[in-house]
Amino acid sequence: MKTKLKKRMVLVTGFEPFDGAEINPSQEVARNLNGTVIAGHTVVGALLPCVFGAAIPELQRLLRLYRPALVICVGQAGGRAAITPERVAINIDDARIPDNAGAQPVDRPVVRGGPAAYFSTLPVKAIVAALRAAGLPSEVSSTAGTFVCNHVFYGLMHVLRTQKGVRGGFIHLPFLREQAQEGQASLTLEDMVFGVALAVDTALRRKKDLRLVGGQTQ
Ligand code: PCA
């Protein structure tokens, strides 16, 4: 007899280091979560290139391969002091620095003819509340910037718009302790891994978001 055993998967992506750095906390978090089981789902931790254009097809390949129920893309936002679930992805590439292939697009849409923006379908405020309850700094962010992270976030939500029931979004992380210059905010890798795992758990358990006042940055 043939039994159908469909594994329930979660995809967590990180980025390779960029802007001359040697490490990216999001890459380390994805690596650490790969193969773990959260709320009955197996996590696939994967790496995306920090390259406009190339990062989205690689994400699409991973989506086709694993057919995840939930997708959380993660990136570094050096200088931020908190783990920040992003609320919105916008249809613009406007790079302040070159990507890892040397490209620096200016005022170009991510998807020509696409809508101006997509909202995350993660329960962003519930994630913030769960992280804070666990003693981690967390805030909702209303801008993922206009570099490769926003590009991937927009590309993800554009793909997911036709995949009913698959939820997704983006989380930015501060610098790791070892990356931060004096006076710069940072977190340990352990806290970041725990924080993203908790975000996955919260998203899997909670379909509807909380109405939380004060969970956001300016
Ligand atoms: N952070 C960059 C791109 C890759 C990363 O980790 C960003 O915020 O766009």
Characterization of the model:
- This protein has about 220 residues and is an alpha/beta fold.
- It has a single domain, classed as 3-Layer(aba) Sandwich (Aminopeptidase), CATH 3.40.630.
- Helix content is about 30%, strand content about 20%.
- The protein has five helices and ten strands.
- It has helices spanning about 25-35, 55-65, 125-135, 150-160, 190-205, and strands at about 10-15, 35-40, 40-50, 70-75, 85, 90, 115-120, 165-175, 175, 185.
- A six-stranded mixed beta sheet has the order 2-3-1-4-8-5, sandwiched between helices.
- Strand 2 (about 35-40) and strand 3 (about 40-50) form a beta hairpin.
- The longest helix is centred in the last third of the chain and has 17 residues, at about 190-205.
- The mean pLDDT is about 95.
**Count of helices?**
5
Helix content: 25-40%
**CATH architecture label:** 3-Layer(aba) Sandwich
CATH topology: Aminopeptidase
Radius of gyration: 16 Å
Judged by helices, strands and strand pairing, the structural class is alpha/beta
The CATH superfamily appears as: Peptidase C15, pyroglutamyl peptidase I-like
Number of domains: 1
Work out the strand percent: 15-25%
The residue ranges in which pLDDT falls below 50 over 5 or more consecutive positions are: none
CATH class category label:
Alpha Beta
Short account of what is shown:
The protein has 218 residues and is α/β, with parallel strands linked by helices.
